[in-house]
Amino acid sequence: xxxxxxxxxxxxxxxxxxxxxxxxxxxxxxxxxxxxxxxxxxxxxxxxxxxxxxxxxxxxxxxxxxxxxxxxxxxxxxxxxxxxxxxxxxxxxxxxxxxxxxxxxxxxxxxxxxxxxxxxxxxxxxxxxxxxxxxxxxxxxxxxxxxxxxxxxxxxxxxxxxxxxxxxxxxxxxxxxxxxxxxxxxxxxxxxxxxxxxxxxxxxxxxxxxxxxxxxxxxxxxxxxxxxxxxxxxxxxxxxxxxxxxxxxxxxxxxxxxxxxxxxxxxxxxxxxxxxxxxxxxxxxxxxxxxxxxxxxxxxxxxxxxxxxxxxxxxxxxxxxxxxxxxxxxxxxxxxxxxxxxxxxxxxxxxxxxxxxxxxxxxxxxxxxxxxxxxxxxxxxxxxxxxxxxxxxxxxxxxxxxxxxxxxxxxxxxxxxxxxxxxxxxxxxxxxxxxxxxxxxxxxxxxxxxxxxxxxxxxxxxxxxxxxxxxxxxxxxxxxxxxxxxxxxxxxxxxxxxxxxxxxxxxxxxxxxxxxxxxxxxxxxxxxxxxxxxxxxxxxxxxxxxxxxxxxxxxxxxxxxxxxxxxxxxxxxxxxxxxxxxxxxxxxxxxxxxxxxxxxxxxxxxxxxxxxxxxxxxxxxxxxxxxxxxxxxxxxxxxxxxxxxxxxxxxxxxxxxxxxxxxxxxxxxxxxxxxxxxxxxxxxxxxxxxxxxxxxxxxxxxxxxxxxxxxxxxxxxxxxxxxxxxxxxxxxxxxxxxxxxxxxxxxxxxxxxxxxxxxxxxxxxxxxxxxxxxxxxxxxxxxxxxxxxxxxxxxxxxxxxxxxxxxxxxxxxxxxxxxxxxxxxxxxxxxxxxxxxxxxxxxxxxxxxxxxxxxxxxxxxxxxxxxxxxxxxxxxxxxxxxxxxxxxxxxxxxxxxxxxxxxxxxxxxxxxxxxxxxxxxxxxxxxxxxxxxxxxxxxxxxxxxxxxxxxxxxxxxxxxxxxxxxxxxxxxxxxxxxxxxxxxxxxxxxxxxxxxxxxxxxxxxxxxxxxxxxxxxxxx
Length: 1020
Fold this sequence. Notes:
The protein is mostly beta strands and 1020 residues long. The protein contains 14 helices and 47 strands. Among the domains are: 245-329 and 375-412, no CATH class; 693-758 and 802-838, no CATH class. Its main location: membrane.
């Protein structure tokens, strides 16, 4: 295996890490400090959700904690992939969700999504401090950049945490607590592969830690490497060409062809051998529309053979026929990812009451995946092109209202033989934390820290078709007895280009990337057939383009915490408090490639990577925060303790002004076995840089035209819709209504998205209440049950393209929505919607509620009188009942309930049990969620027979994992496991739900642990 991984621009940071580590080397401690009596020592801890340091704390906020041991037992080398088994995080984005070619910049990122409310609303912390984003212009943190081996535990807090940590945590917080006092050597290596092959994983981590200066200081160095190989479509039987089943319109349903809805006949059926009705790999030729006998109007294949129709499925698809198989358009099922991390944590007690600490980290990752080939719908080819086959030349084009001259053919083609576009994304993350903490008095402490973060991203698109070169090379004539590019002979000859779709070629764009003429380098392309062109010709029409982005973060935080011991005490004890401030500055700069900027200036997509403008912005925020914890009573009958706590934060944003956030928490411990808790919180999410400053970017949307005759009666006010449609389409000489304008095209429409500098913060109200039980008569058992409700108002959201076009015609004129769409003529069809604009606003609202159950039980058979040593058993259960998850796109609209839809099942649970006996341990894990609907609830009401009965729901997820481990000696261990033991597969019509395409997965690994660095040289 040859690694392509490389460390760039990291020598300064690596040198700093090594220098810090070597400072303490001459005085490495050889003896550990004396252990404290566990009966008298009560460590103060900080629990996620508060900065108040307390002893023996039971959180009022519902916090789920996951240890490093639990993560290792899962066999996962990807933190997010493990955390998605926690019900609250099941909607998170992981590598196993596949390669999304519509948003390639997100490929390879692992982004946490609490409660399904969005990655932008989940605050990710490391040791309670903010972490630099990895997604330009957003706060979303790539959890892949956090080294697995360095994590001590992970805590997940539900509900608004803005009052304690600042904006973005409206759905909650995920806090990664790192090992800060590690001593010794910890090495782990693992290899995994799937049962069917592909997606091999290689992982290795090394921690080196040592105390020095008689235990006053500690330095821990970490190195981690992980490689996930891509999973190809050819490596799974159900995605190989000819085997892939997808949902298409039912040819036996009259509705497929514009007829009325027919109850009892499914609209969609599952089929293989699905093909396009027009484009093909070697070209499809339109000639005489008046005499064409095929459904699409295509008469010939590129080689001159007749084009054969399949069974039409409406729109652009058919079962069988001569068109390109949809199977051939599969991208990589899973992208390839390679990651390396170098980290250091350190602390040094300058005096008994003053400590310096630091965290340094550098991560680099590379993601690679293949996308899809380019295509043309209707390339205008004049008859003097020598490559046109004789059969097509004899039946040349009759314009049929296209507004084109005679003497040509049109070519529709999927350009597989010109190469497939692919992506290579390199990300580098730098993070540094320095700070001081200490004691001001016996009961008052302080902490001050500075966090710097930077993330660089390079996204390179390879084998990209350059449109002006492609059209020049495909416009071929004969000169001197040889085929040549027309523009080589006549530099003023501008090709027509593609007369269909969004690719009509403007004259201003011709020659944008080359100078027409004899020395242009243009090589003639023969597109009438497959595999007919030289590599030289292909190289001239393709290019490689890189987009770059840089994100920076500066955070200064300082606070004082303590209690009122020495001043006053309440009946329940001293009052705890925190007072502090924070300053944060964030900037992001996304720089499109030169050809995207040129395309934006020309208002034409010169390549498949589209048009784009630069997104550049920054903001800063100054904040004051405070917390208070009030112990009301203690050690009374039915009130072992009653405590109230509260937090408040004021934030002043340079972009959106001031915002107040707060929370109030209560905890009532009846006795040692039963406690009740509740929280009420107000949180905010300030608009991020993309929300505010995103430059104009090209996008595509597919929507139903409200003015098409079959949609006229579907609006909330059909009379008003009809009136507005008549007014707009009359300008094109069209009538509306029965027998009038119809647009059933499923072709995507080009549009634009951009930021809105006038956005305000969105706000969220959170309520939780629940109880914790630790029954005295069942030692080792603890159980908690909590209810949560989160309501987000003024949510920042861009209208969907469908909402924009509907509101233009369903609301009285004038209205803002009609300014966001444009109608024109496409492929000779007047009146079509040809463009739209999506701009975010404080428009939407979200609401979610449900119940969380957490249970742990440690079973020691000796407690039941079993004298024989058969080991101990640890049981863990985390479960969720989702009551509701609704989204309202605009005030007054009907809410969309996503409960029991993909990503939001009603019931979710994760269970595991670990058996430990002497040197042997075994773990069984089970993850489950219920079957969910393919359609929305409203969709089921309006069209209950959209799918055949057996496919109306995605099946439940039921995944079983096993792992066994054996300690060979005190330092060496080996383990092996299998995930998805029963080889569960994605549902028909899906490649990643309810399980990923990975299938059954085996792994083996080894660990080596030494108590000190000194023993590294003495270990045998």
